[in-house]
């Protein structure tokens, strides 16, 4: 007996193995066939396996990339390189209703300059908020180079909340870089300009034009920048470029590089040599070293005066209080990056083939010993290069930016002219590896690569040119983000991703599990101010409030109707439509678009959004929901009737297009009873399981209960009409009753599926 069972087991095992082998062989021959057909090498297939993410899969890292001239930011996943979302920041974006609803218009209005609306931005450097030198997943900041502004994006809903305008600069590039606890966001000027908004002749460039560096105070509790507690260092009219904040031992200090310390102002139209000649004639420019910790104390002690309504630390004061120092750096450098341990500062040469490694300790010693080689024309002390430098390393032609590896001392530098990434060690000066890039890399990024604890793993090269990498789409090419595996000793190219929107300058990658965004708002929420909207509306409380020609309409949205379904106003009225999305289910967004009024709202579950406009022409203006939200999405519609002034709405009943009989009504009721049976079964399934342990299901059940309540109401109206022999209305209300049942069933089935797929347990 024993023997037989053993034999049986063995036979079964053999059968299983041969099955596995044959199915594996089958898969393999299929794979080989596809590889052959598509001309893929084994290396390609390996790269695909490292990036391919099956349906429903998640990425390990989320990237926030600048969107360049689009004025937006872009989120995508790594390693899949799937684009998840463009977030509107400085530019109106209709899908998100940004710049179309009153709430976001108020955010954009914060970014006005000299009273003018500025509806685009040139976003360059996103920065995640940090706690103790590590990303905390709470906020992201981005600068606008063209109009010196900073925006705050809250990662709890990925929406732009605030825009602040520099009170001094006329451009800004060296932002956003945050101090290790996001005490401040650094923003440096780029093109020197007068601090006033008046005309100042270029002949007065040296005396009247100024650069600078602002430390914007960030309040982490409320998630907003406090301009009133921010301060700016006045700087010489050198073109300050990128910045970085010290950390660890260098905490409290900030670093900026610069170009065109020649202070050349061009003028080819007057026969003078152009900017590029005059701005690169010297061999070195200046690294600016600022002590923000000490400056903060002076501000708090009331020792800093204001200009243009904001604190300005003049160069005179900076010299006197020993707050700012200069150190020569290679000609026209670009990136400046503080090492994860905070001990070194790396500067990439751009017009030099070296990366220069400065020592924070040596800089501090020179400052302490007052060991200066002289001063610049503005009296700022200069620390000699030899005094501050650990080493310089030949990394290739045109080094731009640096990012760090998880391995101590290892750094990656983007090499623009040579189109490559160089991996090297800043402690030993040894070159470890290089990889060619397609083509002309700007910034590069490793996972959490500018924090205290870089993760290594992947690197993205943000390439300026894509040339022949993609199908041609005309003379304006997409940019190319190339994903590189850096987990081994040799870098390996994995994937090319075209980015079809603006020039993404810089990007930052955060571990996905640090992000915990919400799926819905508290009902009646103004998402831009993050408080209850004064215009929120509950189900059944929809109303119209008129004061003279000022009309406020308080409405709601829930599958599948917009309340109100008819809006009657008069020519010349100023109308505000405030809509609250009553849904609680995940992803049940409703939109709102109206003919001829530039209205397009995106109203996510819980949100209240408003559109204000003047109706200057009598007419008929249909509106509808723009998100395909349910099977009866197309029926989410209505009319705004703009009546001529003085028009009296006639007492004329609406004549229905269709006539219904008692038989129609009874047929519908039979359908509804059958539908109710389905609902009861689903409800039975849900309530017999531990559904309360699944927040998503709890929300669906809440929504379904609402819908069922509405169904009851409609049922009552239908029965009342039938009792009076009014089968026209009885049938219409019976149909509405059924519509609510369908929505209930839809929600219930979604809940049931979720429970089944996520291992819910039977409780009774
Ligand atoms: Cu294009 Cu940082 Cu603005 Cu370098 S920047 S490439
Ligand atoms: Cu709501 Cu479509």
Number of strands: 44
What is the helix tally? 12
Question: How far apart, in Å, are the first and last alpha carbons?
Answer: 42 Å
Number of domains: 3
Mean model confidence by pLDDT: 93
What is the CATH class name of the largest domain?
Answer: Mainly Beta
* CATH second-level architecture of the largest domain: 7 Propeller
Strand order of the largest sheet: 8-9-10-11-16-15
CATH homologous superfamily caption of the largest domain: YVTN repeat-like/Quinoprotein amine dehydrogenase
Radius of gyration: 32 Å
The biggest sheet amounts to:
6 strands, mixed
Percentage of residues in helical conformation: 10-25%
Poorly predicted regions are 1-19
Oligomer: single chain
Structural commentary:
- The structure is a single chain.
- With 764 residues, the chain is α+β, with helices and mostly antiparallel strands.
- The protein has 3 domains: 61-514, Methylamine Dehydrogenase, Chain H, CATH 2.130.10.10; 525-643, Cupredoxins -  blue copper proteins (Immunoglobulin-like); 662-757.
- It is built from 12 helices and 44 strands.
- The strands form 11 sheets. The chain has a 6-stranded mixed sheet.
- Strand 19 (344-348) and strand 20 form a beta hairpin.
- Helix 10 packs parallel to helix 12 (727-757) and helix 11 packs antiparallel against helix 12.
- The longest helix is centred in the N-terminal third of the chain and has 37 residues, at 2-38.
- It is globular, with a radius of gyration of 32 Å.
- Mean pLDDT is 93; it is low at 1-19.
- Bound molecules: sulfanyl-(tricuprio-$l^{4}-sulfanyl)copper and dinuclear copper ion.
- Sulfanyl-(tricuprio-$l^{4}-sulfanyl)copper binds at residues 124-125, 173, 242, 334, 400-401, 442-443, 505-506.
């Amino acid at each position: 007996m024993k023997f037989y069972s053993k034999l049986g087991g063995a036979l079964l095992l053999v059968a299983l193995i041969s099955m596995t082998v044959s199915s594996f062989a089958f898969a393999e021959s299929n794979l080989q066939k596809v590889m052959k057909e598509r001309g893929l090498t084994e290396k390609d297939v390996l790269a695909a396996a490292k990036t391919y993410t099956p349906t429903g899969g998640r990425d390990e890292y989320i990237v926030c990339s600048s969107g360049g001239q689009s004025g937006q930011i872009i989120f995508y996943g790594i390693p899949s390189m799937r684009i998840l979302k463009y977030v509107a920041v400085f530019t109106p974006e209709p899908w998100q209703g940004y710049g179309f609803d009153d709430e976001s218009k108020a955010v954009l209005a914060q970014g006005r300059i000299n009273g003018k609306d500025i509806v685009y931005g040139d976003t360059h450097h996103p920065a995640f908020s940090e706690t103790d030198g590590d990303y905390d997943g709470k906020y992201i900041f981005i600068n606008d180079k063209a109009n010196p502004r900073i925006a705050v994006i809250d990662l709890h809903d990925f929406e732009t909340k605030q825009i602040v305008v520099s009170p001094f600069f006329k451009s800004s590039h060296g932002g956003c870089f945050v101090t290790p606890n996001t005490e401040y966001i650094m923003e440096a000027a780029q093109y020197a300009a007068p601090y006033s908004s008046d005309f100042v002749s270029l002949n007065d460039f040296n005396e009247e034009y100024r650069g600078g560096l602002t430390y914007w105070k960030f309040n982490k509790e409320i998630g907003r920048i406090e301009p009133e507690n921010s301060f700016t260092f006045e700087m010489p009219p050198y073109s300050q470029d990128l910045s970085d904040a010290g950390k660890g031992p260098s905490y409290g200090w900030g670093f900026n590089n610069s170009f065109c310390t020649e202070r050349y102002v061009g003028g080819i139209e007057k026969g003078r040599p152009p900017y590029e000649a005059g701005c690169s004639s010297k061999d070195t420019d200046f690294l600016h070293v600022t002590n923000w910790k000490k400056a903060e104390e002076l501000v708090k002690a009331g020792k800093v005066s204001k200009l243009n309504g904001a604190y300005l630390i003049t160069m005179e004061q900076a010299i006197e209080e020993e707050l700012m120092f200069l150190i020569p750096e290679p000609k026209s450098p670009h990136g400046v990056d503080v090492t994860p341990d905070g001990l070194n500062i790396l500067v990439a040469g751009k017009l030099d083939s070296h990366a220069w490694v400065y020592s924070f300790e040596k800089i501090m010693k020179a400052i302490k010993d007052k060991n200066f080689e002289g001063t610049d024309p503005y009296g700022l002390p200069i620390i000699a290069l030899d005094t501050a430098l650990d080493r310089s390393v030949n990394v290739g032609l045109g080094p731009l930016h640096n990012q760090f590896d998880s391995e101590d001392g290892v750094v990656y530098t983007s090499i623009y002219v040579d189109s490559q990434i160089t991996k090297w060690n800043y402690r030993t000066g040894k070159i470890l590896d290089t990889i060619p890039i397609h083509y002309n890399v700007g910034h590069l990024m490793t996972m959490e690569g500018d924090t205290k604890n870089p993760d290594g793993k992947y690197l993205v090269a943000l390439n300026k040119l894509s040339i022949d990498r993609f199908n041609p789409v005309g003379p304006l090419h997409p940019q190319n983000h190339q994903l590189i595996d850096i987990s081994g000793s040799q870098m390996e190219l994995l994937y090319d991703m075209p980015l079809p929107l603006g020039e993404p300058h810089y990007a930052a990658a955060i571990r996905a599990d640090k992000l915990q965004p919400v799926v819905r708002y508290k009902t009646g929420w103004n998402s831009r101010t993050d408080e209850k909207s004064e215009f929120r509306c509950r189900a059944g409380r929809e109303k119209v409030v008129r004061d003279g020609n000022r009309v406020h309409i308080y409405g709601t949205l829930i599958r599948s109707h917009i309340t109100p379904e008819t809006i009657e106003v008069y020519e010349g009225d100023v109308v505000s439509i405030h809509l609250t999305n009553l849904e609680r289910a995940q992803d049940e967004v409703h939109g709102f678009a109206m003919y001829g009024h530039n209205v397009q709202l995106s109203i996510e579950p819980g949100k209240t959004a408003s559109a204000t406009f003047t109706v200057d022409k009598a007419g008929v203006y249909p509106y509808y929901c723009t998100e395909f939200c349910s099977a009866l999405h197309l029926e989410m519609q209505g009319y705004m009737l703009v009546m001529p002034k003085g028009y009296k709405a006639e007492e004329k009943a609406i004549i229905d297009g269709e006539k219904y009989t008692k038989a129609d009504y009874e047929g519908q009721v039979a359908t509804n009873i059958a539908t109710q049976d389905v609902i009861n079964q689903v409800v039975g399934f849900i309530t017999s399981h531990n559904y309360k342990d699944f927040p998503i299901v709890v929300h669906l059940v809440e929504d379904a209960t609402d819908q069922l309540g509405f169904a009851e109401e409609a049922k009552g109206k239908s029965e009342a009409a039938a009792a009076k022999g009014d089968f026209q209305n009885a049938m219409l209300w019976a149909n509405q009753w059924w519509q609510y049942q369908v929505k209930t069933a839809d929600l219930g089935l979604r809940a049931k599926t979720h429970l089944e797929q996520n291992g819910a347990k039977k409780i009774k």
